[in-house]
Amino acid sequence: MPVSLPEPPFDYEAQLAACARGERQALRRLYQQEGARLYGVLLRLVREPAVAEDLLHDAFLRIWTGAAGFDAQRGSGRGWMYSVTRHLALNALRQQQREVSDDAALEQPCAEAAECAQHLPSSRLQQCLEKLPAERRACIVHAYVDGFSHAQIARHLDAPLGTVKAWIKRSLAALRECLQ
Amino acid sequence: MKDDLDNATQDERDLLAAEYVLGTLAAGPRAEIEQRLDHDPALQAAVDAWEQRLLPLTELAAPTPPPAGVWPRIVDSVEGLQLVERINWWDRLALWRGLTALAVSACLVLGVLLLRAPPVSAPTYLVVLVAPQSNAPGWVIQAGERQNMQLIPLGVVEVPPDKSLQFWTKGEQWQAPVSLGLVKPGQTLQIPLDTLPPLEPNQLFELTLEGRGGSPTGKPTGPIQFIGRAVKVI
Fold first, then answer.
1. Is residue A172 domain-resident?
2. Which of A169, B45, B132, B215 could cysteine-pair with B210, CB 3.0–4.6 Å?
3. Range A104-122 average pLDDT
């Protein structure tokens, strides 16, 4: 019986360095490795497939052009790709909200946001989230995963806007302390 | 917002960084943070820390294979970018500034040299040497009254390895052509004028194909390759 060797871990930083040298194959490898997960993150944030496709295209162009400026001292290559992608989507969402009425009907992508956190792989973050009251945990998940604004979260949880803002601030402070 | 950030305590700034990463900041404050990141290392570090802390939450979004058309679009755009990078040197201001400065200095140097040069510097005689059959121009001769005569090639002519091109001239009253030496194809030949009688209008110049090392008799013996007569330039 052939012995299958464990696959070596994907080296994001090496691929980003290759992108910086202009090697398109490296970008392809990053796309094959993370494309589906990044597209999933974008779909969840913007909810429209056509918009998510455009943002995925933009994100990989940003990864290509920004690879030379990527600094491994500041964090992992994989994390950087998610940051680039998420902030493109968040900018699009927040700019759109200026024009589009806030009353735009919201689907319910994660009705039980508070329970969503249980599906997280075991991590310090998951343990720290579990310590938060359910509605505050829901605020964090709706904001980070669903891209909800303060007002959208308030409507979704049927809570006053000021209360939601305070919950989020306190939750973030609690997470920071818990994760230290 | 600017004031908010400037007056904020470290704790408040850290929570602003957290809300930037979380996504709850409105468009204005988001833009403000992004503008500051490049030149505010403390804020950048706070944002980086929050990116790492919250990254596991991305696992909550279900992976979805993107439509097949996305990757070709990315490739097209990357190719476009690489093309733009290649032609971008056209638009590089510094490059053209440098070249312009170089050109200006070259003009100044040339100007000074021209002012210092003897007053008569323009060629006073011009000869265009053409092939006898086709009249195709092959060489130009220019000569001033006090300067060397120059034989300038307009192209490269083929000379068999066992042959040489020899340069001759003959004034109208001269008894025979005088050799001006051998010519290498494609190379400019300089001839000091003080070795010759003064140039005169209609003076004949020609290039003949001679044996290697030139005519053995001192007179042209081979076929004429190029021929022309001197014209005085006004």
1. yes
2. B215
3. 58
Of B60, B73, B74, the CB nearest to A119: B60
Q: What does the mean pLDDT of chain B come to? A: 84
User: Which H or E run includes A38?
Assistant: helix A24-46
pLDDT at B105 over 90: no
DSSP reduced 3-state for A48: coil
Strands of A71-178 (E only): list them. none
CATH number for the domain harbouring residue A23: 1.10.1740.10
Q: Is residue A107 part of a domain?
A: no
Last residue of a domain, one of A99, A129, A160: A99
Q: Are B96 and B182 part of one and the same domain?
A: no
pLDDT the model gives residue A167: 96
Same domain? For B12 and B40 the reply is yes
- Name the band, by pLDDT with cuts 50, 70 and 90, for residue A102: very low
Q: Which two tokens stand for residue B120?
A: 């008569």
Contacts of A153 in chain B (CB under 8 A): 24
- Residue A133 belongs to what domain range? 113-179
The rounded distance, in Å, linking the Cα atoms of A167 and B24 is 12
ipTM attached to this prediction:
0.90
Residues facing B77 on adjacent strands: none
Residues of A in contact with B15 (CB under 8 A): 169, 172-173
Overall number of domains in chain B: 3
